[in-house]
Amino acid sequence: MQTWVFAEEIDGAPTSLTLEMLSKARTFGGDLAAVYLGAGSDAAFATLGAHGATRVFHLASGEGLPAPAATAALATLIADHQPDLLLFGLAFTDRDVAGRLSARLDRPVLANAVDIVPADGAVRVVNEILGGTTLVETAYRGPKPWIAVVRPKSFAAEAGAAATPEVIPVALPDVGHAGAAAVLERHAEVSEGPDLGEAAVVVAAGRGVGGAEKMGPITELAALLGAAVGGTRAVVDAGWLAYSLQVGQTGKTVRPSVYIAAGVSGAMQHVVGMKDSGTIIAVNKDEEAPIFRIADLGIVGDLHKVLPKLVEELRARR
Ligand SMILES: Cc1cc2nc3c(=O)[nH]c(=O)nc-3n(C[C@H](O)[C@H](O)[C@H](O)COP(=O)(O)OP(=O)(O)OC[C@H]3O[C@@H](n4cnc5c(N)ncnc54)[C@H](O)[C@@H]3O)c2cc1C
User: Fold this and answer.
1) Is the pLDDT higher at 282 or at 132?
2) Which atom of ligand 1 is nearest to the CA of 248?
3) Cα of 291 to ligand 1 centre, how many Å?
4) Of the candidates 238, 221, 225, 228, the residue with the CA atom closest to the CA atom of residue 189
5) How do residues 151-167 score in pLDDT, each as one tens digit?
6) Which CATH number characterizes residue 150's domain?
């Protein structure tokens, strides 16, 4: 099977999501290529190779919005090389290109995949519904290429291949007015501490914290543990945390080794973004709170009493 992974660049390197998809696709056997959108560099291509890409189609993006031109270039590459399966990540440009390609090639897109299962010459795409409580498997029946959009953190990014990939530069075609919009400014959200999506430990605040001015125990605990701070939508809507720190269905999906949920009820839309964490620790004053159903360790109590004790204990051990 010939699999292509749409690869995006951030700060001069492939995104983690790209490497997660390549690591998974490497297990399919067959031919694996990356379609890399970005400035590109030997180091970036080597990283793609280390994660399994034997070929890299390099689409050098300029200042214009990349999706229309990338779609046109990809459509030509597909006609020339006939890949079987195209994997896109659940990210902005990926989704844009996948949607455009679907319309252009007249192929369906299976989105929100948490697993991709090739078997007997077919491919099944696995989705979670009802807050991750039910898995749905869908198989493609129409002509190839099959297109899937994969959720972040569905797979671990693991280097393991030794190959230096063949890099094939691909010119982005002129797509006229469709590509005329340009990116004028980029704004990087400044946050302290580790990145929420990559952190090994996350301390998450829920509405039970009680106010922006009461976030002290959350941020202190996170600082002592070297953890990232996250939160529920209730906390973000109240303006206590930035949207970039929201965990859940309409926020980020995280998979840390330890997830500490404080004053979080455990609504389905939150749980779907953190349930695959290694050890889940919940602090909630309501012993009936649904978060306790998925917690490995539950503490029934007021977080403003429990967390300061934990902070005190951690400080004493330093
Ligand atoms: C389409 C859609 C998308 C959504 N997307 C998301 C999403 O991405 N992420 C998300 O989080 N939510 C999302 N939501 C909202 C979600 O349904 C919940 O409303 C939200 O997660 C609740 O946040 P919470 O747990 O902080 O608040 P609440 O549900 O109000 O829970 C607060 C909890 O704090 C406890 N508590 C109160 N005081 C204390 C204290 N002193 N000490 C300890 N515990 C205390 C209470 O017992 C309670 O369990 C979405 C909803 C919809 C409809």
Assistant:
1) 282
2) 8
3) 10
4) 228
5) 998 999 999 877 789 99
6) 3.40.50.620
